[in-house]
Amino acid sequence: MLLNPLVLILIASVLALGTIYLLTGNKQQATSESEQGGSGTTADSFQANIKKRVEKNAKNDRLRARLVQAGFYGRQASVWLSVTKVLSLLIPFAVALAVTYFTTIPIKTTGAVAAFTGVFGIIGPSFVLDNLKKKRQQCIRRAIPDALDILGICLEAGVSLPASLARVAQELATAHPELALELAIVDRETRMGRGVGDSMRSFADRFDLEELRSMSTVIIQAERYGSSLADALEVFAASMRQKRMYAAETLAQQAVAKILIPTVICILPALFVVTMGPAVIMIIRGLADQ
């Protein structure tokens, strides 16, 4: 019984080290390769080193974008994600060892359960990030029409676009706090010298929403060509309402097919029992009397 737990600990340690290597990357090797490339080695090795660095940075940027879209804006979010995955792999094996030590359950059973749980812990955070992203997108989609209405009123009253966005953030702080927070970020970026259109484009990238990208494009074109932003946003708001109407009609049509399944499974069997049950009972009694 002592050998099996030791072997299990060794396997868990190897898997944890491999996971850390895959998630964080071998920074020392990348540094040494960059130093060799800069010291005047062959051109092919230098180009290969540059290509590896670019691919690694692109991978880190994609991970960073997924975390931001899920609502994790901290700089150490990727590190905490890696730590979570490693702990999700190690904790099940530790629990398996404890269960085997204090009970009579064999190590093979607890080890199999721990391995399954560890694999789920590795891939589980990705599903959690996607779920959080979808929830944030739904929340912003519901808040965009209200924001466009208030923004249009402010622009028609002669208020500038940055001040209008700040006013929208104040008005929607209670009803839509997440949108108010994002508009506050846009207002802060605008005060730091960034264009409103570029700030809205970053806002759209943080949520990966096509509606926000279209809105940022409208603002950029209005700023570039000097057209009326209030009229452009009014047209955009009308198109957004039309899209929402089409989406609601699509969901209504899908509801008919979705209701059909529980109707067939739950209601029709009860109707068959009520309508045909007495006849079946009479037939059985008639056959029994004969």
Structure explained in plain terms:
This protein is mainly alpha-helical. The protein has two domains: 3-132, no CATH class; 136-244, Receptor-associated Protein (Up-down Bundle). It is built from ten helices and no strands. It has helices spanning 3-24, 27-38, 43-69, 77-102, 107-156, 161-171, 177-191, 196-207, 210-225, 229-289. The radius of gyration is 30 Å and the shape is flat.
Task: List the topology elements.
Layout: H1 3-24, H2 27-38, H3 43-69, H4 77-102, H5 107-156, H6 161-171, H7 177-191, H8 196-207, H9 210-225, H10 229-289
Helix pairs in contact: 1-4, 2-3, 4-5, 5-6, 5-10, 6-7, 7-8, 8-9, 9-10
Cα-atom radius of gyration: 30 Å
Portion of residues in beta strands equals under 5%
Helix content: over 70%
Based on secondary structure, the structural category is: mainly alpha
Number of strands: 0
Distance between the amino and carboxyl termini: 70 Å
Basic shape: flat
User: Biggest sheet, in brief?
Assistant: none
Q: Tell me the domain tally.
A: 2
Secondary-structure element string: HHHHHHHHHH
Output mean pLDDT.
79
> Treating each run of at least 4 consecutive H or I residues as one helix, how many helices?
10
Unreliable stretches (pLDDT < 50, length at least 5) are 26-40
